[in-house]
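step=encode ok
step=design start
structure_in=
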């Protein structure tokens, strides 16, 4: 069935603002408005209501999909009380790397069979001077995916507070909320368009035939949103830089494909924990 699949979401704002001030410039304690702006983007991107879908090149328009996922901030918390779907937790720790995942997620967590947990913090790469926009756990059971579901208490996505939503202090190229669209794609079992592994050769797959094979992660191109210099694997078939699962700038992304839709919706059926969310 092609019904709307509704996912309850909790956003955990993990911040370093000892005074508890919310919002403003460079504040990890981001505003409710910033959180809500992200939910709006998710619902546009996953229902093909994003205005920039007009930028999808003609060759790819036929495969662009309305994935029919709806994301809603939770209205009831795990204790049955009403909630905004936003939690705020102060920590003296200024930022978090992937290696500090358990520490981060133990600061705030709601049962992952009832909510999609999104943690927002000052996220860092390795070493911690490096930028990291986001990362996600992947459901089990899909071709090319993990064989098992992730641990319950680490299931969910983590997003850099400067790449979350469309208002607040944001990275210039990552100011349209597409990092969460991308990471939730992983959470629903999608691989990057070049496959699991950045091989540099055209020998990997994302198990979606309607996303053209490509060799590696998208390197910043000039002019913006061009696939030039193209790393083409098939002559005359452009790289699908419009895909949310490429590494393009936010402004260049505007689609998921039909096969990606099928894969994401299957992940709900194959993963008992995802299925329990419904
Ligand atoms: N996992 C990727 C990273 O950490 C996210 C890429 C998101 N891309 C984007 N245009 N928002 O870099
Ligand atoms: Zn990714
Ligand atoms: Ca493909």
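sequence_out=
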């Amino acid at each position: 069935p092609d019904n709307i699949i509704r996912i309850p979401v909790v956003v955990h704002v993990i911040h370093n603002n000892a005074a508890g001030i919310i919002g403003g410039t460079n504040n990890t304690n981001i505003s409710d408005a910033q959180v809500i702006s992200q939910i709006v983007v998710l619902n546009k991107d996953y229902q093909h209501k994003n205005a920039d879908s007009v930028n999808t090149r003609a060759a790819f328009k036929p495969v662009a999909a309305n994935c029919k996922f709806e994301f809603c901030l939770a209205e009831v918390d795990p204790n049955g009380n009403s909630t905004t779907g936003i939690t705020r937790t102060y920590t003296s720790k200024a930022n978090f790397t992937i290696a500090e995942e358990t520490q981060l997620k133990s600061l705030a967590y709601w049962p992952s069979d009832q909510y999609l947990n999104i943690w927002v913090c000052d996220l860092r790469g390795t070493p911690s001077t490096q930028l990291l926009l986001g990362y996600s756990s992947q459901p089990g059971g899909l071709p090319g995916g993990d064989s098992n579901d992730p641990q319950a208490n680490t299931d969910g996505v983590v997003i850099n507070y400067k790449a979350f939503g469309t208002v607040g202090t944001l990275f210039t190229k990552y100011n349209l909320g597409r990092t969460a669209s991308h990471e939730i794609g992983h959470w629903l079992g999608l691989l990057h368009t070049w496959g699991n592994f950045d091989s540099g050769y055209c020998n990997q797959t994302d198990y979606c035939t309607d996303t053209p094979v490509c060799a590696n992660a998208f390197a910043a191109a000039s002019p913006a949103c061009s696939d030039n210099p193209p790393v083409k694997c098939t002559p005359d078939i452009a790289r699908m830089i419009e895909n949310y699962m490429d590494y393009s700038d936010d402004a260049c992304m505007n689609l998921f494909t039909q096969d990606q839709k099928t894969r994401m919706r299957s992940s709900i059926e194959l993963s008992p924990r995802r299925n329990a969310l419904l």
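step=design ok
step=annotate ok -> The beta strands are 5-15, 69-73, 86-90, 116-121, 134-136, 157-160.
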